[in-house]
UniProtKB/TrEMBL annotation:
InterPro entries: Beta-lactam-related, Beta-lactam/transpept-like, Diverse_Enzym_Activities. Residues 26-294 form the Beta-lactamase-related domain. This is CubicO group peptidase (Beta-lactamase class C family). Pfam families: Beta-lactamase.
Amino acid sequence: MGVHEAVRRFGRISADRGLRVHGLVVHQRGAAAVDEHWDLDLRRDVFSASKTVTALAVGLAEAEGLLSRDDPVLRHLPQLAARAAPGVELVTVDSLLRMTSGLTWRWAAPDADHPGDPAVDVLAGRPVATPGSVFRYRGGSTYLLSRVIHACSGVDLRDFLVPRLFTPLGIANPQWHRCPLGHSLGAVGLCLRTSELAAFGRLLLDSGRWHDHQLVPPDFVSALTSDPVDTDGHVATGAPGPHPDNARYGRGVWLCARDDAWRMDGIHGQVSVVLPRHDACVTVTAGYPGPTSDVLDALWSVVVPALG
């Protein structure tokens, strides 16, 4: 079965399973992209797939000498040190990327409304374990990375990425939801079309290269999946229990349990899956209320086998 027929079959499977898929893009080296939509290709929140984009900003800032992944976070946010809990001085940029900071603060409001400074509250909680040792998946960690990018570059995360990634990828005037203080949320809130999320997947597949331009250092793209952490039975939102594809986490990306694949991943079915064995990436956007692993299972049932 060819990729085009597999995509059509995926559409039927998605409808049968109620996955509410908006669009699917398959990019494979040496072949024309397959771009199929079952809804308008509008910009929508890609939720936690935003975390991968924030991670890329960290890699770019490191390449420019603005920070090191080994830096303590408070080195970049010294104005918050007086109100930080004991143990926070050990939290590094890298532990935020890997979700091993030990910080457990969550946004209380679904629209990220918050009185005062959210970073103060993230840092006010004592780490539940020595930073770097235990996985705790929290959007507050990635929000701190957004604040670090602003602190070391002098511009907001979104504005930092416009000339470095968004414009080269052809993503014009991207919007990123912000906290009440005006900082891009980092963890969620980046609004992209399916095709624009797919551009990030292709960038990752090609080790940070876009056509003739190296946008992200290849060693940093490799670092996204190196030394993954065990997620200790992590249960994704809407899931009845742990799933093998959620068992390992890198730096802003999830490592799949099949085909040596790894992915950007956001709630409600936003994924861009990098498949090095197949020289391919597969991107889906959806409005599915269940676990994103259901979308992954549908992809592996028909689309991935068609890649050869």
